[in-house]
Amino acid sequence: MNWPRFVPLVARQIRRNPRRSLLTFLGLAVSFFLFTSLKSLLFTMSGVVDRAGSNVTLFMRPRYGTPFYRAEIPQSYLGRIRSIPGIAGATPYLFFIGKGRREGQGSLVLGAEADSIRKVRIMKGVTEEEFEAFRRERTAAIVGRTLMDANDWRIGQEVTVQGMGEGKSVRFWIRGDADAGTDSNFSNVAIVHLPYLQEVTGEQGRLTFIVLKAESADLAPAIAGSIDDLFANFTVPTETISEKSFLSTVIGGLADALKAITIIGYLTLAATVLVVANTVAMSIRERTTEIGMLRTLGFGKDMLLWLVLSEAVFLAVVGAVAGSGSAWGMFEAKLIHFPKDLGGLELRSNLGLLLESILLSIPVGLLAGLQPAWHASRLPITEALRHAD
Amino acid sequence: MPAELKSLPLVEIRDLQKSYFRGGEEVPVLREIDLSIAGGEFVALMGPSGSGKTTLLNLIAGIDRPTAGELKIAGRSIQDLSEKELDSWRNRSIGFIFQFYNLVPVFTAVENVELPLLLSGLSAPERRERAEAALRIVGLGDRMHHKPGELSGGQQQRVAIARALVGNPTLILADEPTGDLDSKSAEEILSLMESLNQDFGKTFIMVTHDPRAAARARRLVHLEKGRLVEGGA
């Protein structure tokens, strides 16, 4: 069959009721926009783990289920860890979760060791002068640019962060700022001196976790095993995992939620199938006599089936190109990103996701058109023609 | 049409019967129809409502199947054709004119006329050329690019006639072609059909209630309660 000659027949039918076609098209476009956005969100989150995560850097935390922010690890572990062969550096962290400027907004204060932090972590954007100023002053802080912007803080300012509970607060002077962006370790935290934070919070001698750097990625699994074996019979047994695994577990909880949202995305497409099916069915019902006429002219059942299916697929593909294309374009143009409060993470998409969505529109169109197309093509000619009378 | 062809039967109907089944009960619509129509004839099928004239037309057009009997068009038993063969046969051999024109409203006149040719092997320029020629024959050379909504009822029926003509079919069937037209337009359409019959040798079978329309035909066939009561083979 020579299909190109039937293209006008399909395209013109879509223009028969422009308002209905436009509304159907918009419904499809919105669904596909939503679907591609959700898929892009998942892609972004997995990309964060791939890009930022390292197999050389290890995170040590308490083995058994305490909340990630609790200070459970005795500081005495640090000396023992540093004596394990193959470790290039180890730095301790203590978390303090404070309130942000607005209701529901948080400010994370990290107690760190000035002498060891730069052996393990890169403090992107922090100049030597800024770091020296930080090192010299007990109550100094280096604050990530994202957190600075979210709270309208500036270098040299004295800041007091009120704790989320227990009435504690941390006061510090900002002496430097770390870069924002997905590849910065400290874009959304305030780093203060560990002894100072321990004193303020009353957590002397305790840590939230320890970050280590192995001399090579090959050594990392053995080092992690050695550390966990070493502390297995201590009061706080440990779990040491790579940064990639650590980020995966942190983001994993969010990813599960995003997967649930993706399922909702698929359900949205399924609902769209029903809407398009109804639109096509209405359109076909109005054209019953015309279908009888086409059959009288010699158009076969199978040809009519494909013509009606083509209309549904055409609508779905155009809707997908517009909806998914818009989502992809907005992500590519970096017009969509997380709020700065949440780290200002740039959402990313890729051409594969766009093609996947557009390809998905073909079964969406086929499913939507199948029932009305089958019904139209199987209608006896005399019955279809009588419809006019 | 050459004189020797005119004498050959184009439509041969022998003992044709058609029944519908409603609630398990057989309702006969056509009984023991014997009819022969030669090439080049202009036949009017008349009868009261429910007499079976449209059913007979549908059977001749191959859009419905008889319950029993034989139906030959140009020597071919169409009741033996498969559905696909019947589709293809209808496209090549039958032109159909409907009471309500049945034009595609989003197509122009020439695009409507081209519709049957989409199923042929003709190229786009050839299809367009034939459709334009058919429209000129029916007197719509200056309305080719108008959509049905921009044409009068009579003009729309002329487009429908052009669509029936364009494939050069063996037989043209018309179901109440003037039923939706005012008397002036009806006269024009009947004159056009008469001219196509006389000047181009086209064979017409027309179902009509209207005695004035029937008077333009050269042969009348009356149906009553599913039987031929006058005329026939």
Question: Helices and strands in order, then pairings?
Answer:
The complex is a heterodimer of chains A (389) and B (233).
Chain A (H helix, E strand, L loop, with lengths): L6 H8 L3 H35 L4 E6 L10 E2 L1 H7 L4 E13 L6 E7 L1 H7 L7 H9 L3 E5 H7 L6 E5 L6 E10 L10 E5 H8 L4 E2 L1 E6 L5 H11 L7 E5 H44 L1 H10 L3 H32 L18 H28 L2 H6 L3
Parallel strand pairs in A: 4-8, 5-7
Antiparallel strand pairs in A: 1-10, 1-11, 2-9, 3-4, 3-10, 5-8, 6-7
Helix pairs in contact in A: 1-11, 2-9, 2-11, 2-12, 9-11, 9-12, 11-12
Chain B lengths: L2 H4 L2 E14 L2 E14 L3 E5 L6 H9 L6 E6 L2 E2 L5 H11 E4 L11 H6 L9 H14 L15 H13 L5 E5 L7 H18 L2 E5 L3 H6 L2 E6 L2 E4 L3
Parallel strand pairs in B: 3-8, 3-9, 6-7, 7-8
Antiparallel strand pairs in B: 1-2, 1-4, 4-5, 9-10
Helix pairs in contact in B: 5-6, 6-7
Mind explaining what this structure looks like?
The complex is a heterodimer of chains A (389) and B (233). With 389 residues, chain A is α+β, with helices and mostly antiparallel strands. Chain A is built from 13 helices and eleven strands. A nine-stranded mixed sheet of chain A has the order 6-7-5-8-4-3-10-1-11. In chain A, strands 2-9 form a two-stranded antiparallel sheet. In chain A, a hairpin with a 6-residue loop joins strand 3 and strand 4 (106-112). Chain B has eight helices and ten strands. Chain B has helices at 3-6, 53-61, 83-93, 109-114, 124-137, 153-165, 183-200, 211-216; strands at residues 9-22, 25-38, 42-46, 68-73, 76-77, 94-97, 171-175, 203-207, 219-224, 227-230. Chain B has a six-stranded mixed sheet. A four-stranded antiparallel sheet of chain B has the order 2-1-4-5, with helices on one face. In chain B, helix 5 (124-137) packs across helix 6 and helix 6 (153-165) runs parallel beside helix 7 (183-200). The longest helix of chain B is centred in the C-terminal third of the chain and has 18 residues, at 183-200.
